[in-house]
Amino acid sequence: MAAAAMCSVVMSLSRINQRLGVLTLNPVHKGAAYSKGVSVRGRRGGPPSSRPRREAGPPRWEKMTPDQDWTAVYPTAAAFKPSAVPLPIRMGYPVERGVPPAKEGNLELIKIPNFLHLTPAAIKKHCEALRLFCTEWPSALDSDAHCEEHFPIQLESRDYVFAGPSLRNPQARVVTLRVKLSSLNLDDHARKKMIKLVGERYCKKSDTLTLTADRCPLRKQNKDYAFYLLTVLYHESWKTEAWEQEKTVEDMEEYSWEDSPSQRNVLDTLLRMRTLGDSADAAVDTDSVRKELLASSEVQEYAASVSRLKNEGESESSVLQYREAVKKVLRL
Amino acid sequence: MEMTSCCSVFYFRNELAVLQALSSTVQRDPTASHYRFQDDPYLTPRTASEFKLFSLSQESGRNAAKYIINTYPNFFLKDYAEPHIPCLMPESLQPKVTEVCEAGLRELIHLRKVRSAVDMYDRLLQAGTVVSLELTNNLLDLICFYGDQDPVQGDQAEPEKTAEGEVVQDPAPRRKEGRFRKSDSLHRTWRKDNNAERIFHLMPERNERSYGALIRGMVKYGAHSKAFDLYTDMQNNRMAADVHAFNALIAAAPEVRQKYSEKWDLIAEMLKQMNKLGVRPTLLTFNTVLKSLLRCGPLSRALVLQVLGEMKALGIEPSLATYYHILVAFYRQALSPSTLSRTMLTTDLLHSMMDEISGKVFDALDPDDVYFFNYAMNICCSLKDLGLAYRVHSLLNVGDNWKLLGNPSREGFYYGSLFNLVCMMENIGVVLQWYRDLVPSLFYPNSHTMRDLLQALDADNRLDLIPEIWKDVKQLGLATVSGDLAEEVLALMARDEHSPEIQESFANCALAVKAVYGHGEQSQATLDFTASALCNMATILLAAGRTDQAWEILQLFKANNRVPSEKLLDEFLNSAKSGSNSEQAVTLVQMSSSFSLPATARLAQRVEQEFDLSEEQKKALQDVEATSDSDKD
């Protein structure tokens, strides 16, 4: 106010001086130093207020009894109110050689989300109120296995709540469909084809196929798309195309011992061992010898151990089994 | 395993059902003020006037924002809200159609612009277009509803002239529910050269709706006899009025006849005609009948119950307004302050009424519903019947009935009277429980209530709670309203002897009370010291053993031109004796002589006898005695 008063005085002065053709500097922007030096009337603290400043009342928690109804104090999600929460909470980085700051005016406490509106008492009350809208759980579905059996497909979607100008959230359109392949009617070829088709959407450990649909703008559309996709995969995996005959060894999902280099190698080795042993019978029918060798139990054991090693990977028991089989085959 | 129906079915009764179910789990918080305020010790209102000020300022802020949005709609066109919220978008209050045509008239009627609509109608007639009957009826409805003047916009309240020519300022409309707005209709009367009548006579054909509109407008704005004339006109034209017109006529009936019996005859006549025409009466009809009956003097008592019986026979559920009118009919004489028959309440009507309506949920069906609870509580207070008051209060707690309590000032009256009754009749434990429950979430007590509370404390000998109550009094801003409360508090504290801790707390409280007196900051309401207040303060401080502060109070006597009582000086002497302070004793005697108290001589004698005095002290005493003797002469 002092500056404004000075400003008007200076302006009138400058107008007068301009008439006289004298230049004056505009001292208004010199800042506090100028106005303080000239303020004569002692109005440093501002003019006396017409009303005394209103005092804050006592905080509300002083009147709260220990057995009050807390769900009435915090019925909905609200910011932390230090006058309404009767707990002596401290939060924040400790003051120099002291304790964390108290709850009054503590921004840290206000920033974080609190769950004061969801105490166990409140949740119990809410559950009682919502019971009206619920129907009974069907008595036939009393175990996980039954649920699996009658409801093999699980759909998951998320709803988002946000207190802003717009209620919509684009992430709410995503739909995830989960189904176990064992509950689908697939034979061996179909299953392998299905797994190849879906790629990394199949989890081998839990035998679950997960399809996530988010390419449509609405949830309903995504759900329909997911079911459509499942149907298409199912039918496609049952079909056998002409070019599937060209499946090579590299395409195979699991190792099969027949016609593999291991089989050839072991038969060759055993044949050579035989022929070295009986060098006299030169005219030997190799095919029948091969068949006989194949049928022998050591070779079968060897085959089993090699398959196991290749399919399941190396572990102590499988490597030991391989060692035993090799020893038996080579008669060591 | 057979699965017949293994899917759980969700069904929502309506969109809000879940939210309503969850909100029904929440009760009232007794320590909080109304939910519309910020929950902060600085920002919550602590007195009734602050409550009004804060809520009005909130409303006015909202109105201002709405005004800005509507005046500059081009800045507020972008719509952020999803889904679209239509009430937040700017409304166009200016008519869009500019040329003279029926659509323009329709739009003006929709925007409630009475004068422009009448203008447009006249221009249409001049141009020769035939305006349809329905549109004319709509126009008549508009004019009759607003009394031939434009409705007042929120902040543009213009001074209106009544028939007497005084300028009356219309207050800004307040959107509190249940408030009966009398400000519009009381200040307007049905003028002789009315647009409505003129248009009515200009109409080539009139139907029941036109007559009905005109009758209702006339009754609303005070032209009762004209309404009846119009009604006879209607009968001559063999037209049947509808139920709303009949309601209006019944309301107007008491105004057009003088004697009580004639009034009732007219009302009965109306009802018979309704019956003849086959018009089915509604709740509002019966309520209007009851209201008009109240103007019929002593007939009301006898007939009111008959009307109630008729209502029930027709199967119409009575609303709170019905019960209110019945109560007024029976208790009106007993409650008025001018009659002497206050004790002659021989009826137990309220008891039987409460028997009937306990536990029922009422809706707001009539503007007079809000008067019921206040009147019932008033009756309970005069009857001094606490049980009945509890029954009325329990009716308030059923369902949504609390909404029928009216605006905050009415609520304040209701809770004030309830609390007064409780203070009078119940013991202190229950009183304190009610006090903590009601204040400050439901009402802000006034000084009368606080005085009742203090008396209740006194009656039950719980004076140790006084310091707490004083804190509340100070917070409510009642301390400086009138000096009575402060004086009473001090008197109660000074009266008896108490245990040391209580005396300590009393002493602290007395000092707090002292701060209220004297000079506060500029232009804060302050009280002047009174002699009794100062005496009590000094007594309390002495009793607590704070002699220095008590002596300070003695100095205040002189400063404020008040005279201490003799009893007080005796007490000071006692304390000086216990402290063996003869200096103080002598000063006391000198002080009493300066006030020219008759007890000076006695005090001087006492001092001489009980204290060991030095020579100069004895001399001073003798001087004092001499002056007092000379004064006596």
UniProtKB/TrEMBL annotation, chain A:
<dbReference type="GO" id="GO:0032543">
    <property type="term" value="P:mitochondrial translation"/>
</dbReference>
<feature type="domain" description="Small ribosomal subunit protein mS35 mitochondrial conserved">
    <location>
        <begin position="153"/>
        <end position="239"/>
    </location>
</feature>
<dbReference type="GO" id="GO:0003735">
    <property type="term" value="F:structural constituent of ribosome"/>
</dbReference>
<dbReference type="Pfam" id="PF10213">
    <property type="entry name" value="MRP-S28"/>
</dbReference>
<dbReference type="InterPro" id="IPR039848">
    <property type="entry name" value="Ribosomal_mS35_mt"/>
</dbReference>
<dbReference type="InterPro" id="IPR019349">
    <property type="entry name" value="Ribosomal_mS35_mit"/>
</dbReference>
<dbReference type="GO" id="GO:0005763">
    <property type="term" value="C:mitochondrial small ribosomal subunit"/>
</dbReference>
<feature type="compositionally biased region" description="Basic and acidic residues">
    <location>
        <begin position="52"/>
        <end position="66"/>
    </location>
</feature>
<feature type="region of interest" description="Disordered">
    <location>
        <begin position="36"/>
        <end position="66"/>
    </location>
</feature>
<protein>
    <submittedName>
        <fullName>Mitochondrial ribosomal protein S35</fullName>
    </submittedName>
</protein>
UniProtKB/TrEMBL annotation, chain B:
<keyword id="KW-0810">Translation regulation</keyword>
<dbReference type="GO" id="GO:0005739">
    <property type="term" value="C:mitochondrion"/>
</dbReference>
<feature type="region of interest" description="Disordered">
    <location>
        <begin position="153"/>
        <end position="178"/>
    </location>
</feature>
<dbReference type="GO" id="GO:0032543">
    <property type="term" value="P:mitochondrial translation"/>
</dbReference>
<keyword id="KW-0689">Ribosomal protein</keyword>
<feature type="repeat" description="PPR">
    <location>
        <begin position="282"/>
        <end position="318"/>
    </location>
</feature>
<protein>
    <recommendedName>
        <fullName>Small ribosomal subunit protein mS39</fullName>
    </recommendedName>
</protein>
<comment type="similarity">
    <text>Belongs to the mitochondrion-specific ribosomal protein mS39 family.</text>
</comment>
<dbReference type="GO" id="GO:0043024">
    <property type="term" value="F:ribosomal small subunit binding"/>
</dbReference>
<keyword id="KW-0687">Ribonucleoprotein</keyword>
<dbReference type="Pfam" id="PF13812">
    <property type="entry name" value="PPR_3"/>
</dbReference>
<dbReference type="InterPro" id="IPR011990">
    <property type="entry name" value="TPR-like_helical_dom_sf"/>
</dbReference>
<keyword id="KW-0677">Repeat</keyword>
<keyword id="KW-0699">rRNA-binding</keyword>
<dbReference type="InterPro" id="IPR055063">
    <property type="entry name" value="Rib_mS39_PPR"/>
</dbReference>
<dbReference type="GO" id="GO:1990904">
    <property type="term" value="C:ribonucleoprotein complex"/>
</dbReference>
<keyword id="KW-0809">Transit peptide</keyword>
<feature type="region of interest" description="Disordered">
    <location>
        <begin position="614"/>
        <end position="633"/>
    </location>
</feature>
<dbReference type="GO" id="GO:0005840">
    <property type="term" value="C:ribosome"/>
</dbReference>
<dbReference type="InterPro" id="IPR002885">
    <property type="entry name" value="PPR_rpt"/>
</dbReference>
<dbReference type="GO" id="GO:0019843">
    <property type="term" value="F:rRNA binding"/>
</dbReference>
<dbReference type="InterPro" id="IPR037387">
    <property type="entry name" value="PTCD3"/>
</dbReference>
